[in-house]
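Hi R.,

As promised on Friday, here is the backbone we talked about, encoded as structure tokens. Could you run it through your design pipeline when you get a chance and send me back a sequence?
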């Protein structure tokens, strides 16, 4: 090799590693270059071919798609949760909490399986929390077991975030889960960037109804009372395929005793309140909306969705969730598709007329059916 100051160094990343070293002066010809072959002593992947690496990557992706289920111990008992995806830099996790009588699959899977939801899934890691004893295959709690209160269920969430090393979340709760997440947000406001609350009853009226049934000696079964909480009277009377499906799930649940314990327990960030137009607790959600800060609260009343809009109208709810996340500064380039193609969409940008001085509603309907991105503090009534 020629002596002197070195110039360009060209090399191959694949074994065998070959370096071509060109000395200065620049007039050097190719004949002056020497080839040096270096034998790799410790291959990075001994015995692995490119096909092996691809198979490993595919297996890892399959594991992420299938979700990873974990359990952590807390002072109030063990809590189980399933994680999908990988954390995104400077973005919160979406953390869901299901309603009573359901688990994360029966409550949220139809929503997260929709085509429109895939854009959100790609942008956020999500954590599906299951109340104690509600996960599939959970053993029945022993006689005398004291089920955690709703406040204690909320106090379990920090242990989940600590386990995952997550700093903030966007909470997405339905019914009892909405109540749990609202309690968590009140006690840990620095960890909650936003809340999506479906069928929230801030006074836990539904659970007081259950207590009234117990005190008056009424003989309604636990499964009947849970169904009355999940669905409107119109839906129950119509006995739709969805109602029949969930009646069968609840009546034949192997952990029905655990569900009853969870049922007994349930008596300042951007918030989106969601309720179906005939939901059992529609008035309670409207009342809750009247008490929240109108500058940070969005209220979505969904037509033709009954008591479980995430099951009956997953596409509409997905679109609303995208707008909500956009209002928080995420997914700015998100493409709104389904609602913008609908023939009829109505948007009421208003504050419901209340004794607290909110202005009376003023409605406007878009002929094209497109719904502009909303900022907190607006009420939407969607029927499409």
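Update: got your reply. Pasting your designed sequence below so it's all in one thread:
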């Amino acid at each position: 090799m020629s002596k002197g100051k070195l110039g360009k160094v060209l090399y191959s990343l694949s074994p065998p590693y070959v370096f071509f070293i060109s000395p200065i002066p620049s007039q050097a010809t190719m004949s002056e270059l020497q080839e040096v072959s270096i034998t790799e002593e410790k291959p990075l992947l001994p015995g692995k071919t490119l096909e092996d690496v691809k198979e490993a990557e595919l297996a890892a992706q399959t594991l992420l798609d299938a979700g990873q289920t974990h359990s952590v111990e807390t002072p109030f008992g063990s809590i189980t949760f399933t994680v999908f995806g990988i954390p995104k830099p400077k973005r919160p996790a979406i953390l869901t909490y299901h309603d009573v009588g359901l688990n994360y699959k029966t409550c949220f899977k139809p929503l997260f399986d929709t085509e429109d939801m895939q854009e959100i899934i790609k942008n956020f890691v999500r954590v599906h929390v299951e109340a104690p004893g509600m996960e599939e295959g959970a053993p029945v709690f022993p006689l005398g077991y004291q089920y955690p209160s709703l406040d204690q269920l909320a106090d379990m969430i920090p242990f989940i975030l600590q386990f995952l090393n997550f700093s903030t979340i966007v909470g997405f709760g339905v019914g009892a889960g909405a109540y749990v997440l609202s309690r968590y947000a009140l006690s840990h406001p620095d960890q909650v960037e936003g809340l999506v609350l479906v069928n929230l009853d801030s006074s836990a009226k539904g659970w007081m109804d259950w207590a009234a049934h117990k005190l008056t000696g009424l003989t309604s079964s636990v499964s009947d009372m849970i169904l009355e909480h999940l669905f409107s009277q119109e839906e129950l009377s119509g006995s739709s395929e969805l109602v029949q499906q969930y009646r069968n799930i609840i009546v034949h649940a192997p952990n029905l005793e655990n569900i009853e314990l969870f049922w007994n327990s349930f008596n300042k960030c951007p918030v989106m309140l969601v309720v179906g137009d005939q939901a059992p607790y529609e008035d309670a959600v409207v009342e809750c909306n009247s008490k929240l800060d109108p500058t940070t609260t969005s209220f979505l009343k969904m037509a033709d969705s009954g008591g479980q809009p995430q099951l009956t109208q997953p596409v509409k709810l997905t679109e609303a969730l995208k707008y909500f996340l956009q209002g928080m500064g995420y997914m700015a380039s998100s493409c709104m598709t389904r609602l913008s193609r609908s023939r009829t969409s109505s948007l009421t940008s208003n504050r419901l007329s209340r004794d607290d001085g909110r202005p009376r509603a003023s409605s406007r309907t878009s002929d094209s059916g497109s719904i502009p991105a909303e900022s907190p503090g607006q009420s939407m009534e969607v029927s499409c």
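One thing I noticed while checking it: The longest strand covers residues 77-84.

Thanks again,
M.
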